[in-house]
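WARN no homologs supplied; continuing
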Amino acid sequence: MGLFGGQFANVVEWQEFRDDMLFWKWSNKEIKKGSRLIIRPGQDAIFLYNGKVEGIFRDEGSYDIESDIIPFLSTLKGFKFGFNSGIRAEVLFINTKEVLVKWGTKNPVLMPAPGLPGGMPIRAFGTFACKVADYDALIEKVAGIRQQFTVEDVKERITGMLDQLLMKWISKEGKDMFNLQVNAHEIGQGIQEDLDMEMQKIGIGISSFAVSSFNYPPEVQKMAEKAAAQSMIGDVGRFQQVAMGEAMANGQGGGTASEMAGMAMGMAMGQQMASQMHQSMPGQGGQMNQNAGGAVPAGGSAPNFCPNCGTKTNGANFCPNCGQKLV
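OK structure emitted
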């Protein structure tokens, strides 16, 4: 017996241990006399016999299965290895490390927004952290029918739930649709709680969920940038004066100065159109117009300077520079 005992010996181990794999099952092999169990750092080993958990081993190291493992198994404590006999058992290796995973929405999420019947299409990106949390649930729901379970499997399940959870927590916050990043922490925290509750059903815990960015359609992004630029410019007349002054001070010649003046004129025209629309509204005709030359009631004398661009009027009814009606 001693002569042949070694030829049946084997090693029970997770040889290709990967950080992106949450569990791997050593199965369909017979554990013979002289076999050893090897547990590496970041691993737990669960012995399964006829689908039932026999014992969980958490300390890393190399163990003789007959002397170090069998005595601690629930129903196999009295098992004796004989010549040509072994145990037809399974060993489930668990990755005990927490894994950080990048996520992103597959398609734009249509968020309800005022004035947009179809909703605002938004993409979101970020990270989440997960690890095996409940061995019993994992064995019952997943490991019983699968050989391995990877981070990609978890990511696929989570991605399938993200659209509804993003809609739920963005709507629940009730914040500005165009400034979601301010509330990214609260939104991510709410999604993490919901995801953890769902994933715990299969033994996986979600310890954190972060939203790194919200991406809007290019057209919306350009509008936001334009609005920000206009708010920074402020008073059009002042912008025109500053632009012209800087161009001449830098010695950039008439070309640059003309471009800057043209830009200011275009903005002045836009403001003029908005002003005319405002004046045409009912009840607005008799209001006072505030400008650099003072307040002038409708139907009074022309101001000394144009309220729109600041050009001297010389008593004209219309601005000689921008065409603004003065009286």
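The mean pLDDT is 79.
OK
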